[in-house]
Hints:
Layout: H1 3-14, H2 22-39, E1 43-46, E2 49-52, H3 61-68, E3 77-78, H4 79-86, H5 90-100, E4 104-107, E5 118-121, H6 125-135, H7 139-147, H8 164-199
Antiparallel strand pairs: 1-2, 2-3, 4-5
Helix pairs in contact: 1-2, 1-6, 2-4, 2-7, 2-8, 4-8, 7-8
Amino acid sequence: MTTAKDLLIIAIEVDPGGPVGQGDLSLALAGAELIDLLGARAVTLAGDRVVPAGPTAAEDRLLAEAVASLVRQVPYETVDDWLWRRGRDLFSAYTAVLEEQGQLTRQRRRRMSFAAARMTVADSPARRRALHRWAADEPVVLALAAAVGIQGDQTADEPVVTDDAVTTVLAAVHDAVMELEAVRQRRSFENAAFANVWRGA
């Protein structure tokens, strides 16, 4: 399992039906992938630029796709560009893989067949691993979850990430999620103004 898969499992388990949007999670999943690639030494950061560090064989299919999608021409891409490019529809990609692996199921409500299916995580070693990372207050996991609005019950001092490259990625995830929320609010205001025009307001 990867940090991205663990994050998705945590999001579904800890905050089922919560306010976390797919777009927010997609950005955080892209950040989680980049953090795993840093840990595997598949990439390094030069400032805020993602620099491929040589061939790396990732066992995880989606992480292998992430490696294959790296921009390998100078000046490379920024962490922010990576999040927006790689994060496009990444939530759907991860849920599809977890469903395929039997880690995730969708349950429709009997009386409301038109309602969106509720996702549940199967009891498995993958689920237990993800929840263990959450309960253990892993700084990276907590920071990624917090970036999308998932808060735990941790009472200890906030864990600190000491790796500068990881800190750069986490800050970029936070900024990207905030930017996405600003876009949502602007569209909401524009739609409301448009509706007022039609109502003669």
